[in-house]
Design brief:
heterotrimer, A alpha/beta (about 500), B mainly alpha (about 375), C alpha/beta (about 325), A: about 500 residues, alpha/beta, Rossmann fold, 6-stranded mixed β-sheet, C: about 325 residues, 2 domains, 11 helices, elongated
């Protein structure tokens, strides 16, 4: 579709105290195109989006919408002009119903016609194939369904431009597929879509053009089809490309096969995992593979007692131990980086320093606080080791990018020197560079003797990192894969064949 | 440098309110800060404020902790203090001779009472997950009746020499005893913060209880602990109040003081929704409220209108302190800064120094 | 489950107080009296009032009396209706709210029950009740101001410390002062309030503010004993003399025994009574069979350092007695 430009941004600059977030960036969006906006965290994608949507005001530059100069001061103004946005983090009210979330705040006049609203919601949900009922409370839906409802909310608005900021990070493949269908449909209607994602495959599957940003500067705008993937990555990362290729060649860590570091027998939890057996050796990296909801996260949570464990027993290095609370698990040398970074991981308002020392401090005891100096040393040490990008150790963690927040949580656990570290989706929603760093780190830790369980929705990542994959389906283990030359297809086959319906 | 400034930004509001009140008072009388010696003790506006705010300061400290951990407020603090001070008075009155030991034992007993009351509220909030205000509504409603029963249905008189000294001055010490006790209490709290992880635990629980649990902190225990501390604070405040008053009036002792305590927490720059907190802020907030009350009297506002004026003042204060207003000020400041920048045509990559509050929330 | 448990707990605790008040016992051949009163923990005044009702209308004295104590007007009305159903001979009421009683009072009248209001009046037609025995707050104020004017001071500079603004006591006790000021008989140098809780601390601040403003004053007129106490604390701290032979004359209200002892010791100068003991008078009416109609005001006393005696303190004082010679600061 060769066509008119609906949104044009020229020479956009934006500074925050101490940071130049955008530096003379140009961006063009055409009618009926899906335009991927790519870049590492901190590249300026979010800032650019927030300027379009009126969250931030630009310092300099010009924005025209269909040839007309615009200057949004509030998100509402942008919305009124037909710019709809769906953010990575779900911004809905979990205690309202699905229908209320879709329509409330957008009705005109004080009276809400509940019946009509519910009917409209029902239709929309059905047309998008979203498995939720209008009267259902939002909190009872899965994360994925919640995200789809957020999209439905934005889509329903009469929009010219739809901005999707990492909408797929919590969706499984099937759901991603549905979303893409929807995106194509909107594209045919002439909507211009700006699409931000960390999944490269998705960029190639859906987008027409790609704009790459790096460190607040424009790298370039490309036709996606004519830009090889490896080149795209190198444009995003600059020079770390070698690392990725190196990592791919990395031999999985060889396991010490004496007594397992951790052994769980018949573990089950209130989250509904069926009783499972699981053991991990010293220096081993394994993974729980499976689709969303397969029980991969729930199993990890059961090991750490993040969910209440309802049965089974646990041995650490062959010795039976009682683990009833996360504190017991931590004391036994288990660490757990949770899937939901925002909800279970970061202490948003606390400083990076406090976030790093938190768990070690808990281990040390209530009456033995670290001195500020000691705490700062710990923090500075790990900020350097993990290359955490933060103005100071005293900065609240919430003002860091997702990838750096994740590194802080990692630092928190590494500081406790766990024998067994569970990483549940450590790479979700973070930039490629950090993803690679984390994977490298996992292998390095295993080499140093730590046992690691690595869970990711990107099977490719797990194949690169893990020496053993435990495949899950319908909340139970359906198979186990070993070997150095596994492919994603192998895993898919096990999933397809496994389970009760096989 | 910028982090230093940031960590004190929450004190800007209470301190500027205080400054405003001082200016008003200075306009009314240039001798506002004058301190004289009366009967061997310092006398003047400042000692009066410090004296008058003692109980409020102590209660605001407890309220800050409860608010931070439980994301709600304890509205039964005045009633708790009334009960604990009733225990104190009963023990003192049954003694044939009142010695310092009698007072100490009586005080410790009243502290036990305070801990029991704190445990009661704390259990409801932490284990039964009752909203703090609802949980403390029970003691708020029934507390004075309980104190009335302990009092033997009378207002017992605490006319002994030691109580007198605790309520006024100890001969030879030029500072009123309640002021000294308040300082001792603040120091004690400071020591607790220095030697424990109370702050880290309470803030963690208040900000993200899920994450707290996954990192080995039991949120229930911490919330319970803050209510225990609140109970202790109530006991100390009750002790000071009853010795000041010289008799135990179960009907009116520290009545409705939770309003001012909650206000002190808010003026101190603390979120009533829990999380990060500043004890210093609350203490300054408490003294600010005391100053405000006295300033309204100094301005000789009609008694019928005095509450209205206080309410107006507080509304203005809260609006100014609200996140909406702060965000607006930040925006304005940003604009001023960027226009300055253009005028001076600083090179593009120059860092703009962080001045001022500038609480930039970036997600 | 936990939530349900905690709600139960709350309900039980809240309910306990109400249940307490409603003990049931049955006796015959005695004068049946239903008393609707405020709870004793409302104030020292009420405590004395409730006790007085209990002692005077005891079984030993030939009464079958029940008393309901609550500060909730609708609960009071419900209790009154219960007494009417029980067929009491007399219904004694001290109402939490002055309004909302018309129907109840009428149904009592229809049932032939004599209603006597005590301490607090009700806004209703005078025909709806037999008699009301009240304290005349205006009278109390007048008597207190008379005393102030009789002190023989050159110029009277008075600090007025009011109670809860708009309460009957505040309005009555302030009226005489304001009137005298208007007539130029005295000068109000500071006008403050102890707030809704008649607070000692607030009263103290009122006086402290007056001192800070450099006001010259020689009388403190505090509308209850607690506030008088707070005012005197402020004087003490500032080193200003008061009481017998002192610069500032202090008067309080209510006849708390501690206050009377303070007057006796010359620490304060006077106290004005607000008599909670209406029961004896009502009993006299009932025994004699002749009950006056309409409002009857009680005679109330003003005691000064000269007129106060141990007997009077014992007889008329309310609340705990600190003992002779003990000053309550």
């Amino acid at each position: 579709m060769l066509s008119e430009i609906i949104l044009e941004m020229k020479d956009i600059s934006k500074s925050f105290p101490g940071v130049k977030a955008l530096d003379s960036v140009d961006f063009k969006l055409r009618k009926g195109e899906i335009h991927a906006l790519m870049g590492e965290n901190g590249a300026g994608k979010s800032t650019l989006i927030k300027i379009i949507t009126g969250v931030y005001e630009k310092d300099a530059g010009l924005i025209t919408l269909q040839g007309e100069p615009i200057h949004f001061k509030t998100p509402q103004e942008a919305q009124d002009k037909g710019i709809g946005t769906v953010y990575q983090e779900i911004m809905l009210c979990s205690n309202l119903t699905v229908a209320e979330n879709m329509f409330i705040g957008r009705s005109h006049g004080p009276v809400v016609n509940w019946k009509q609203m519910n009917e409209k919601a029902e239709q929309l949900l059905a047309s998008l194939g979203i498995p939720a009922s209008p009267m259902q409370e939002l909190s009872s839906c899965s994360l994925a369904v919640q995200q789809m409802i957020a999209i439905a909310r934005a889509v329903d608005m009469d929009c010219k431009i739809l901005i999707l900021d990492e909408p797929t990070s919590s969706l499984d493949e099937d759901e991603v597929h549905k979303l893409f269908e929807l995106m194509r449909e909107l594209k045919d209607r002439g909507v211009g879509i700006i699409f931000i994602t960390h999944f490269l495959e998705q960029v190639y599957e859906i987008s027409d053009r790609t704009t790459v940003l790096r460190n607040g500067k424009l790298v370039g705008e490309y036709e996606t089809a004519s830009l090889p993937q490896i080149e795209l990555i190198s444009k995003m990362l600059g020079n770390v490309l070698e690392d990725i290729t190196k990592l791919k060649k990395h031999e999985p860590v060889v396991t010490d096969t004496s007594v397992p570091v951790f052994e769980g027998i018949g573990l089950s939890s209130v989250a509904g995992v069926r009783p499972f057996n699981f053991a991990i050796q010293k220096g081993e990296v394994n993974g729980f593979a499976g689709l969303l909801g397969s029980g991969r996260s729930e199993s990890a949570r059961a090991i750490f007692t993040a969910d209440k464990v309802t049965g089974g027993e646990v041995k650490m290095k062959g010795k039976r131990v009682k683990i009833k609370t996360p504190l017991h698990a931590i004391k036994q040398g288990i660490g757990y980086l949770p899937e939901d970074r925002k909800g279970d991981g970061i202490i948003a308002d606390l400083s990076v320093r406090d976030n790093i020392i938190l768990t070690l401090q808990v281990l040390k005891g209530f009456f033995k606080p670290f001195s500020l100096k000691q705490a700062e040393e710990f923090a500075d040490d790990y900020i350097e080791k993990l290359n955490i990008k933060t103005p100071t150790a005293n900065t609240p963690i919430r003002s860091l990018s997702g990838g750096n927040q994740q590194k802080v949580i990692l630092a928190r656990w590494l500081l406790t020197h766990p024998e067994y570290l569970i990483l549940d989706e450590p790479t979700r929603g973070i930039d490629v560079g950090t993803k690679v760093e984390i994977q490298k780190l996992v292998i390095q830790l295993a080499n140093e003797g730590m046992s690691v369980t690595f869970i990711s929705s990107e099977i490719g990542e797990m194949i690169r990192t893990c020496s053993r994959l435990i495949v899950m389906k319908d909340r139970e283990i359906v198979g186990e894969l070993r070997g150095t030359d596994l492919t994603e297809n192998d895993v898919m086959n096990v999933i397809a064949k496994g389970g009760r319906n096989a | 440098m910028s982090t230093m400034k940031k960590s004190f930004s929450h004190l800007v509001l209470p301190l500027s309110v205080m400054a405003l009140l001082i200016i008003i008072n200075l306009v009314k009388g240039a001798d506002y800060f004058r301190i004289t010696m009366v009967n061997g003790a310092l006398y003047g506006n400042i000692p009066n404020i410090l004296f008058g705010a003692s109980e409020l300061v102590i209660l605001s400290i407890g309220m800050t902790l409860v608010t931070a951990s439980s994301r709600g407020q304890d509205i039964s603090i005045g009633e708790s203090a009334t009960i604990t001070s009733a225990i104190f008075v009963q023990y003192v009155l049954q003694a044939s001779e009142v010695t310092p030991l009698t007072i100490v034992v009586a005080f410790l007993l009243s502290c036990v009472g305070g801990l029991v009351l704190g445990a009661f509220n704390g259990t409801l909030v932490s284990i039964f997950k009752v909203q703090p205000m609802v949980a403390s509504l029970i003691l708020f409603t029934g507390g004075r009746s309980i104190a009335f029963m302990i009092d033997g249905k009378l207002s017992p008189i605490l006319a002994n020499d030691i109580s007198n000294k605790i309520g006024t001055v100890i001969p030879g010490i030029p500072i009123q005893t309640p002021i000294i006790l308040t300082v001792v209490f603040i120091v004690l709290i400071a020591v607790v913060f220095k030697t424990t992880n109370l702050r880290l635990y309470v803030e963690t629980v208040g900000i993200n209880p899920n994450a707290a649990r996954l990192n080995g902190i039991n949120p229930k225990k911490i919330i319970f602990l803050t209510f225990l501390i609140m109970g202790f604070c109530s006991a100390v405040a009750g002790f000071i109040a009853v010795n000041k008053a010289g008799r135990h009036d179960s009907v009116n002792l520290l009545k409705l003081i939770m309003m001012d305590a909650i206000l002190a927490v808010a003026i101190g720059g603390n979120s009533l929704g829990g999380g990060k907190f500043s004890i210093t802020g609350s203490i300054i907030g408490a003294y600010t409220i005391e100053m405000l009350n006295r300033t309204l009297l100094r301005l000789e506002i009609e008694p019928a209108m005095i509450k209205v004026f206080k309410a107006i003042f507080i509304i203005i204060l809260m609006v100014v302190a609200s996140p909406v207003a702060r965000a607006y000020f930040t925006k304005v400041l940003d604009k001023v800064r960027s226009s300055n920048k253009r005028k001076e045509s600083i090179p593009k990559d120059a860092h703009i120094p962080t001045t001022n509050i500038a609480v930039k929330k970036e997600e | 489950m936990k939530k349900a448990l905690s709600i139960m707990l709350i309900l039980v605790l809240l309910g306990a107080g109400v249940l307490f008040a409603a003990g049931v016992k049955e006796t015959a051949g005695q004068t049946k009296i239903g008393i609707v009163n405020l709870p004793p923990e409302e104030s020292g005044y009420r405590q004395a009032n409730v006790e007085d009702m209990n002692t005077v209308f005891s079984t030993a004295n030939g009464y079958d009396a029940k008393q309901t104590n609550t500060g909730d007007n609708s609960e009071q009305i419900a209790a009154a209706k219960g007494y009417i159903r029980d067929g009491v001979d007399y219904l004694l009421i001290s109402a939490a709210n002055a309004s909302g009683w018309d129907d109840t009072l009428k149904s009592a009248k229809d049932a032939g029950i004599k209603v006597i209001l005590f301490d607090r009046a009700i806004d209703t037609d005078a025909s709806n009740y037999q008699a009301a025995i009240l304290s005349d707050m205006g009278y109390e104020g007048k008597k207190a101001v008379e005393w102030v004017l009789s002190l023989g001071l050159n110029k009277i500079n008075l600090i007025l410390i009011r109670g809860q603004m708009g309460s009957a006591a505040e309005i009555g006790r302030s009226a005489a002062v304001l009137e005298a000021a208007k007539a130029g008989k005295l000068n109000i140098v500071a006008d403050g309030t102890g707030g809704d809780s008649w607070s000692l601390e607030e009263a103290r601040k009122v006086v402290e503010a007056a001192i800070a403003a450099g006001k010259d004053f020689n009388v403190i007129y505090a509308q209850n004993d607690g506030m008088a106490q707070g005012a005197v604390q402020a004087l003490e701290a500032a080193g200003i003399s008061h009481g017998k032979g002192g610069k500032v004359k202090v008067i309080g209200f209510d006849f708390n025994r501690f206050a009377l002892r303070n007057v006796q010791a010359g620490y304060w100068d006077a106290d004005m009574q607000c008599n909670p003991r209406q029961a004896a008078e009502i009993a006299k009416w009932i025994k004699s069979g002749t009950i006056p109609s309409g409002i009857v005001y009680q005679e109330e006393l003003l005691l000064t350092t000269d007129t106060i005696t141990d007997e009077l303190i014992d007889k008329w004082g309310i609340n705990a007695d600190p003992g002779k010679g003990v000053v309550t600061r």
